[in-house]
Amino acid sequence: MSETRPLNTTQVEQPGSLKSLFWAFTWLALQGFGGVVAVVQRELVEKKRWLTREQFIEDWAVAQVLPGPNVVNLSLMIGDRYFGWRGGLVALAGMLTFPLLIVLALAGLFAGVSDVPQVQGALRGMSAVAAGMIAATGLKMLPALKTNVLGTPWCWAVAALTFAAIAGLRLPLIWVLALFGGGSGLWAYRRLNAMHPPGSEP
């Protein structure tokens, strides 16, 4: 496994070929026990440098809003960015092919022991690890909020309100996204227009 290089948030590289794109997303998927979210930021931003931290947060926000699995959406977006529709399909194939084969094999094995209390307890223990990995990924993404056009206080406020709405009030995700995501997006659009009015020099 390659070592993590010092992170440069302004300079990005790109996959050299469709083959490297396929195997990169295959490796991502095979690491994603409990959720690929926990490893995708480290691999794509810190190791491969295909995205800056800020780009990752922007793309991840879009992937969250779109229907379907978040990481699958992200793989399609990144593949399309570098190789067009072929890249999107190759990244998708890398994300799904080997995990699908493994899940089918494990499903056949698990069917015979799914009612064993020890197995059920082991799976519950693994869920705690998955939750910790996702939380760690969220903490790694926080520094990028310093450059957000909305400002750090507003970003923290939205994050806290979103957490309260989902974890505390148990509101449907679609309403939380529409309210906080839509409101933040509209405010960011207005602030960017105020900073760079149409027709002004970039």
Brief description of this entry?
The protein is an all-alpha fold and 202 residues long.
Question: Could you characterize what this model shows?
Answer:
By secondary structure, the protein is mainly α. The protein has two domains: 12-109 and 127-134, no CATH class; 144-202, no CATH class. The protein has helices at 18-31, 37-47, 53-65, 70-110, 117-141, 152-168, 173-195. α1 (18-31) crosses α4. It is globular. The N and C termini lie far apart (42 Å). Mean pLDDT is 78; it is low at 1-9.
What would the keywords be for this entry?
single chain; 202 residues; mainly alpha; globular
Blueprint of the fold:
Elements: H1 18-31, H2 37-47, H3 53-65, H4 70-110, H5 117-141, H6 152-168, H7 173-195
Helix pairs in contact: 1-4, 2-5, 3-4, 6-7
